[in-house]
Design brief:
Layout lengths: L1 H14 L1 H14 L1 H5 L13 E4 L9 H16 L4 E8 L14 E7 L11 H11 L9 E2 L1 H11 L5 E7 L2 H16 L4 E6 L5 E8 L1 H6 L4 H13 L1 E8 L2 E7 L9 H5 L2 E3 L5 E3 L4 E8 L4 E3 L2 E10 L4 H15 L7 E6 H31 L2 H8 L1 H16 L5 H38 L6 H12 L3 H19 L6 H36 L1 H12 L10
Antiparallel strand pairs: 1-3, 1-4, 2-3, 5-14, 5-15, 6-14, 7-12, 8-9, 10-11, 13-14
Length: about 550
């Protein structure tokens, strides 16, 4: 059945080999249209089953207000039916491994199993609904995957897909540049949120000891500082032992004495003489501005701009954002912008591929030449690559997939399979051609175009069944991947998609285009081949003398 269906199309391709080859060239050229419309990303976003909500507050927020906003956002998030639990954290623990400022919130959102979701709900729809419900003035929303966020923060320090690092000497200038970048990218298509850190936006209570006044009360600067530390910050006075557990006991003044600078001014202090004086008699108390956190990278002060994107590919967004920022933001001398986040991974990938891809292609070409020892045969085999790539690119465009590491892995696998099938087809064609050549030598005649066509039919038609079975096996293994929904299915689909689309065009190339190119090649070389076998087909006859 397969041979019956294949033979008429093979007849047409052999009858018009130049037309068949031209159509293959048109298919390769058409790849330019979908390729220009493909986006780029480092890796597709995995569905981890949960969300991490990491909004940013403006600097200067108090602890009480941050706690209030955290509780408010938790209640809003819990109103979504798909949410199982909500746990939020503001500020940081007493550890150097998590230097989070008070302006950064981390809320872990655990979702219910998918079978308990409302009909038609997806992770994207849940995220959109959460973003619509949680709208708090002064809070910039960021919804990301928990594990992915941790990896990005450890690698780049940026918790959003795209980030801009502003480096320079003056924190005030860095703050202004960050605000300018935030305003510039806010109107770009695909910007879900943009927030520039305010490094100098912190608010602090400064207590400056009056040395002369403290001396009159027989107190040193250290004595006043100990009172401030104990009363406001707290001091560990003992430890509670309960079995194997140890709990520190801290002592400080009630919050009613500590909740405002005016209350601190009236904080009673007992002097060595036993007198009770307010703290304002010993120190000046005022609120001052200052940097809440000073970041530094490469020995330069740095401020971050966090940009969350939605509905657009990462590479295309950054390219447009870089152009807009370069046109609208003026950088003073000594200051620089660095695009970071996942975009750093894309840049590293492109730099490495620029070296690895040509080197790999060169090695493959050299190995093929050593195997076949003919440039024309190596060229025929390498022709399978652009034809197979064309099918893969068209299929990616149809599925709206962006180019990523997973897609490139799929293209690498596709190139191997396409070259393999091309080698097998060319090998069978060469064997059939060599058989016809030896037959012509044994019959003492020249090769004709009929011999070429017979060789092509013998090499292509008789071997079409194993080729079709090979391709069918590949499709049977890859197509179920496209319908998978389990963990990691997003990556596997992008690996399989180029192979599925590319195998269609690679099969057409193997079954039709390579035989057509083989016919053209042998027709052009027919005269030379006949000259090579002529000395053997036209042997001189020697007369035997009569006795």
């Amino acid at each position: 059945m397969v041979v019956f269906l294949y033979r008429p199309f093979l007849d047409a391709s052999i009858a018009w080999p130049w037309a068949t080859t031209f159509l293959a060239g048109v298919l390769v050229a058409s790849m330019w249209y979908p390729y220009q419309r493909l986006g780029s990303e480092f890796m597709p976003e995995l569905n981890e089953g949960d969300f991490l909500y990491m909004p940013s507050f403006y600097p200067g927020i108090s602890t009480g207000k941050a706690r209030e906003v955290l509780q408010q956002t938790n209640r809003l998030i819990a109103t979504v039916p798909e949410v199982e639990t909500v746990h939020g954290k503001v500020g940081r623990a007493e550890t150097a491994t998590d230097p989070a400022p008070l302006t950064m919130v981390e809320t872990t959102i655990q979702l219910k199993p998918e079978d308990e979701w409302r009909p038609g709900m997806t992770m994207e729809k849940i995220r959109d609904e959460l973003d619509r419900i949680v709208q708090v003035p002064g809070v910039t929303n960021v919804w990301i995957q928990p594990i992915k966020n941790r990896i990005d923060m450890l690698a780049t320090g940026i918790r959003t897909p795209v980030g801009v690092k502003v480096s320079g000497a003056d924190l005030d200038v860095i703050t202004q540049i960050g605000i300018d970048v935030e305003r510039a990218v806010a109107d770009i298509e695909g910007t879900a949120s943009a927030y520039a850190e305010r490094p100098v936006g912190g608010r602090f209570i400064e207590i400056d000891v009056k040395r002369d006044a403290a001396a009159r009360y027989m107190m040193s600067v250290r004595d006043v500082q100990d009172v401030v530390q104990t009363a406001i910050g707290g001091m560990q006075v003992s430890e509670s032992v309960e079995g194997l557990e140890r709990f520190p006991i801290n002592l400080r003044y009630p919050q009613s004495w500590r909740d405002s600078p005016e209350q601190l001014e009236n904080l009673p202090v007992v002097t060595p003489s036993g007198a009770h004086v307010p703290l304002t008699a010993l120190a000046d108390i005022r609120i001052v501005d200052g940097p809440g956190m000073i970041r530094s990278e490469n020995a330069r002060r740095t401020g971050f701009v966090f940009i969350d994107i939605a509905g657009r590919d990462l590479g295309g967004y950054v390219a447009e954002a870089q152009r807009v920022v370069a046109e609208t933001v003026d950088l003073p001398p000594g200051y620089s912008l660095t695009w970071s986040g996942q975009y750093e991974y894309i840049e590293r990938m492109q730099d490495r591929l620029a070296i690895v891809a040509p080197a790999t292609l060169l090695i493959i070409t050299l190995m093929l030449f050593l195997a076949f020892n003919r440039v024309i045969e190596v060229g025929i085999i390498l022709a399978a690559l652009p034809v197979a790539l064309a099918g893969g690119v068209w299929f990616l465009w149809y599925l709206s997939f962006d180019i990523s590491i997973a897609v490139l892995v799929g293209f690498i696998a596709l190139a191997g399979v396409a070259v393999e099938t091309a080698i097998v087809m060319l090998l069978y064609l060469n064997l059939a051609w060599e058989k016809r050549r030896k037959l012509a030598q044994s019959e003492n005649r020249k090769l004709t175009r009929d011999d070429i066509e017979d060789a092509v039919f013998e090499g292509a038609v008789l071997r079409v069944r194993p080729k079709v079975m090979t391709v069918a096996t590949i499709f049977a293994a890859l197509i179920p991947i496209m319908y998978g929904t389990g963990t990691g299915s997003e990556i596997m689909q992008r690996i399989a998609a180029p192979m599925i689309g590319g195998m269609v065009t690679a099969t057409l190339l193997t079954l039709f285009v390579i035989p057509s190119i083989f016919v053209i090649w042998k027709r052009l070389a027919l005269r030379r081949v006949n000259r090579e076998i002529a000395p053997q087909t036209q042997r001189p006859t020697h007369e035997v003398p009569a006795e």
